[in-house]
Amino acid sequence: MVFIKSYCEANSSISHTWLDEGISPCFFFTLVPTTLLTIAFFLGTIHRIFYQKYGTTMEPKFIPRSRLYGFQQALSILLLLQFFGGMVWKAATAKELPGYEVLYGCFSLLGWVWAMATLRVERRRVLIMDRTRGHSAVLLLFWAVAFSAENLAFISWYSPHWWWGFENNEQQVQFALWLMRYICTGLLFFIGLKAPGLPRRPYMLLINEDERDVENSGQSLLGRTEENESTWKDFWKKVRLLVPYMWPRGNIFLQLLVIFCLGMLGVERVINVFVPIYYKNIVNELTDGSSWPTLATTVCIYVLLKFMQGGGAGASGFVSNMRSFLWIRVQQYTNRVVQVRLFAHLHSLSLRWHLGRKTGDVLRSIDRGTTSINSLLSYIVFSIFPTIADIVISIIYFITYFNAWFGLIVFVCMALYLTLTIIITEWRTKYRRDMNLQDNAAKSKAVDSLLNFETVKYYNAENYEVSRFEDAILKYQASEWKTQASLAFLNQTQNLIIGLGLLAGSLLCAYFVTEGKFQVGDFVLFGTYIIQLYTPLNWFGTYYRMIQNSFIDMESMFKLFEEEEEVKDEVNAGNLLYKLGKVEFENVYFSYTNGKEILNDVSFTVLPGQTVALVGPSGSGKSTIIRLLFRFYNVQGGCIRIDGQDISKVKQTSLRAHIGVVPQDTVLFNDTIRDNIRYGRISASDQEVEEAALAADIHDKIMAFPEGYDTQVGERGLKLSGGEKQRVAIARTILKAPQIILLDEATSALDTQTERNIQASLAKVCANRTTVVVAHRLSTIIGADQILVISEGRIAERGRHEELLLKGGMYAEMWMNQQQAQDSDSSSETESKDRKSEKLQPPSTSTGHHGH
């Protein structure tokens, strides 16, 4: 018959916390279940009351189906069975059962049942005001304490009262039960950080969105982001993206530099151990009355180590400074590679993406993203890993050379510190992300307003723009306040944990000194080492936040990298073999958006050396034909050929090398006129640039400027008139000397006289070259070999000027309307000139004539 004779075992008391080189089983198995039950019952009850009072039941369709959630429940049930089975096994095998084992089994069962109930409540109900994602702090704290408690068993490795000896069947069974608890609690904690059974987005957003919107909620850059998604999602994917930027491939010197810097990192860890040891030796030698040579040697070694280490934790020591100096080259390599690759990627994206981008957001994302990569590499390699290494080394050192209590203090503080840091930092992530969004919005408004400076002036909207910008700044500052306030709360929590740990360790060490078990130098060693340890530990929260912030800052940049190229070269694409310049459109279909066709079954041929003009109302698809031929977009049906070669099968660079374009809306670089013209062929000489300007009828105008060809054109060429910009664009195309020329209303911004001069120049340039012209003024394309009238995405009429006039169709009507408008303008000009001449004439002498 089993009975309970006493609460603790013989020769033991609950007040004896340390027994035979280990934690007293009576103390341990009383403290752990009591703590867990307190967390589960009291905090869990408060938590459930809040959910019942202020929460609502989630609709089943928003509750994610997750195997990991089922695994969570299975682990919790397995732990319950373990506790129950352990009690049954004890009762069946032991003749005398200590009271603490009964308490341990009963309290553990109650605690884990309550935790399972809390888990089910969180899955089925949600707090409406709660915008965070993931489990509550109560559950995470419960799992963290349970897992930490199982780790404390390692401290009692040498104690005969625990199960590490495997001396009998009872110890083997106890070890098996502990191993099951260790694995289950560890898995529950780490799976709990992911929260697989809970929605990944705030419930208030989910109930207002369509299910398809929820599935496709991750949008491209500058669209909506999953604002409460953990920044650690796809962590290894992000790390794989980072590694190529850290490891300089193909540069042996930089690779050796990386290895050497990592070696210096290991040297710093060794120095950090020996600095407090030699400080202790100095104090002991001073109190013991050691000889001067011995003491001087110890002091010199200590000072040398301190010089190598620097202030406190290697923050400014010789080794650290040397490593930082050598790392500059690696950091520059990373910066260069990231920016160049991203810049090249942006230029590879389609015209569709560039037309929809927000320039301010893109620039901010690139700026923050490249900075964050350097921050990540620096914090992970030179801060996080060394800090973890220092903590592990310190725990081993204190357990080995002091006793297990000091290792326990460091371990408990570290576990609490890291757990609360992760929980609070994850909670405040949404504030940081919202602050970034508001920052982007403010900068975008500023950029848009400055780019449209003239429009603002036209409508006297300066006060409106300033007000909009101020509103954006106020929204940003509101998010910034939340970010800073939550940061202050986190810092205070961290300081409280560190202070309590330092107090407990210092009191214990001072007690052992007074008992004669430690020397004074040991107290100095503990104080020095613990402060040296807590300095990086205190920064650990900052490192974690900075890494998380860097991940947030990198999200937009990663999304830029993930943007797919709409127009890609095929794998085995070859160069365009230009022969004569025959262009063919065969049954071409195209639309910018689904459901609205721009081109519908368009077919035509431009023979070598011919000029084909495209005319028609606005929005009919004329400019789209030019863009498709230049391959800004891929056709969705049909085929475009040059000299019999499908342009989708050749490399884009070789295709565009043979085509010159003069667009309708010319945008120039903020550079000199000379360099803007030279952009047509970068290798051109100054003489060739001036010859191209002569051909475009702009040379004389340029020479009239005070600085001539060195005149700055301003941002987007705003310092030049529309006609001047157009002629610079024509000169640029003339300099390129392409075999195929595309003119998209190239003379639309010119006056009549200049237009005639340009037409003559273009006629010389386009001679013997295949030319496609988009024209609004029909008078400019009278001599075209073929005119295509585009209407609603189809070719309504085709033929030469005279043929189309005889048909009496759309073209003839457009010609009549333009002629009437021109006649009206001419008569208005004549009348205006007559009025002016009348005013300028001297008084009439006809009166005198009549008098004679």
From TrEMBL:
Compartments reported by the entry: Cell membrane; Early endosome membrane; Endoplasmic reticulum membrane; Endosome membrane
Q: Which residues form the ABC transporter domain?
A: 583-817
Question: What ranges does the record list as Basic and acidic residues composition bias?
Answer: 830-839
Under the GO molecular function aspect, what terms does this record hold? ABC-type heme transporter activity; ATP binding; ATP hydrolysis activity; heme binding
* Entries under Pfam families matching the protein: ABC_membrane, ABC_tran, MTABC_N
Q: Name one GO cellular component term.
A: lysosomal membrane
Residue intervals of the ABC transmembrane type-1 domain: 259-549
Q: How does it assemble?
A: Homodimer.
**Per its record, how is this protein called by name?**
ATP-binding cassette sub-family B member 6
This chain is encoded by the gene named: abcb6
